[in-house]
Amino acid sequence: AQTVTQSQPEMSVQEAETVTLSCTYDTSESNYYLFWYKQPPSRQMILVIRQEAYKQQNATENRFSVNFQKAAKSFSLKISDSQLGDTAMYFCAFMGTRSGNTGKLIFGQGTTLQVKP
Amino acid sequence: SAVISQKPSRDICQRGTSLTIQCQVDSQVTMMFWYRQQPGQSLTLIATANQGSEATYESGFVIDKFPISRPNLTFSTLTVSNMSPEDSSIYLCSVRVDTEAFFGQGTRLTVV
Lengths: 117, 112
Known about the structure:
The complex is a heterodimer. By secondary structure, chain A is mainly beta. Chain A has strands at residues 3-5, 10-14, 19-21, 24-26, 32-39, 46-52, 60-61, 64-69, 74-79, 88-96, 106-107, 111-116.
């Protein structure tokens, strides 16, 4: 069974600084998708960034980038130039592609990020 | 992409009663997913709802407690039955479009 682990329950960063959130996962599949979701107090799940396992290049979305290490099964999120609006809970998630895998997501425990002014 | 309208956004319910949560999607989707997020915790999949067939429940969740309907390709409901304070959580519906998941706004349920 697939598992996703986020070992940092809480993190804080000063505004304009850079922070990295860690995520490791376990799977026997060779092709899959990894995601980082942001959940602010509004509860809405917002997709931050997505990585396809068969792509070697790390995904980047503006101030957000990932360090995807497939062999190590590691998928960290780097937030550059942190802004107060980045304060939220961040979830790492896995989606398999094996036949019968309907598209459900497996989530890590979450990391609460606080950006301080 | 997909836009999901989830209702109600929040509710406070008496123990022993039931609450039905609705999700409406702006496009036809094969699978809809229902997640539970207990206070301060991560999201856990309750069940997968496929139109025209019974929902598939994850370990620890049963149909009698969380009956699901999926009458068409754009709509689903989740009922939380015979509620207890332990059911106080956020419930979210989700759909998959291509390789991306979209979520409703969530229903914050408090059972007193």
